[in-house]
Amino acid sequence: MKKGLFSLLRDVLKIMSSAVIVILEVASPSRAATLGRATTNYLTHCGGCHGIEGVSGASFVPQLRETVGVFTCSEEGRRYLVRVPGVSMSLIRDDQELADVLNFVVFRMGGASTPPGTKPYSASEIHDLRADPIVTTDILKARAMVLQRSLALCSVSGK
């Protein structure tokens, strides 16, 4: 019982410390509010499967931390990140809020895997792409193919 409580407290502290770090790293109050909301939306809608720090457990759920940015090396990969069912059919219906979450994932969680000069997602881009979600019976195969093509175009070393 104590071990379970300790794990829960540790996870709560990780969430709180991550939120504090994000807010402290941001110079502009309006930008801090955007990142704060994007972080909260990520934790609420994505973190349960992808992990609160972008590191999912050993499962079919992809890890995001230091890896997701390579998808932006190709236009196909960039579109994939929006069209994947968990994003395109997200309960976050506001396109700007979803763009903020994707930008948080790509730029903050993606870290060094995101190439310099990567364009942030816009609300209009999200609106257009989520209207055409990926339909497949094998999302893992589709992801692997998109990732392979993105990696071939990526100039990020070691990714």
Please, could you describe this protein's structure?
The chain is mainly alpha-helical and 159 residues long. It has one domain: Orthogonal Bundle (Cytochrome Bc1 Complex, Chain D, domain 2), CATH 1.10.760. Helices cover 60% and strands 0% of the residues. It has eight helices and no strands. Helix 1 packs antiparallel against helix 2 and helix 4 packs antiparallel against helix 8. The longest helix is centred in the first third of the chain and has 24 residues. About 6% of the residues have low confidence.
Task: From the structure above, extract its key features.
Cytochrome Bc1 Complex, Chain D, domain 2; 8 helices; 0% strand; mainly alpha; globular; single chain; 159 residues
Average pLDDT taken over every residue: 79
CATH topology: Cytochrome Bc1 Complex, Chain D, domain 2
CATH homologous superfamily label: Cytochrome c-like domain
Unreliable stretches: 20-28
Q: What portion of residues belong to β-strands?
A: under 5%
The SSE string, one letter per element, is: HHHHHHHH
* Amount of helix: 55-70%
Instruction: Give the C-alpha Rg.
Output: 16 Å
Overall domain count: 1
End-to-end separation in angstroms reads: 41 Å
Per CATH, the architecture is Orthogonal Bundle
What is the CATH C level class, in words? Mainly Alpha
Largest sheet: none
> Count of DSSP helices?
8
Number of strands: 0
Tell me, briefly, the overall form: globular
Provide the structure class. mainly alpha
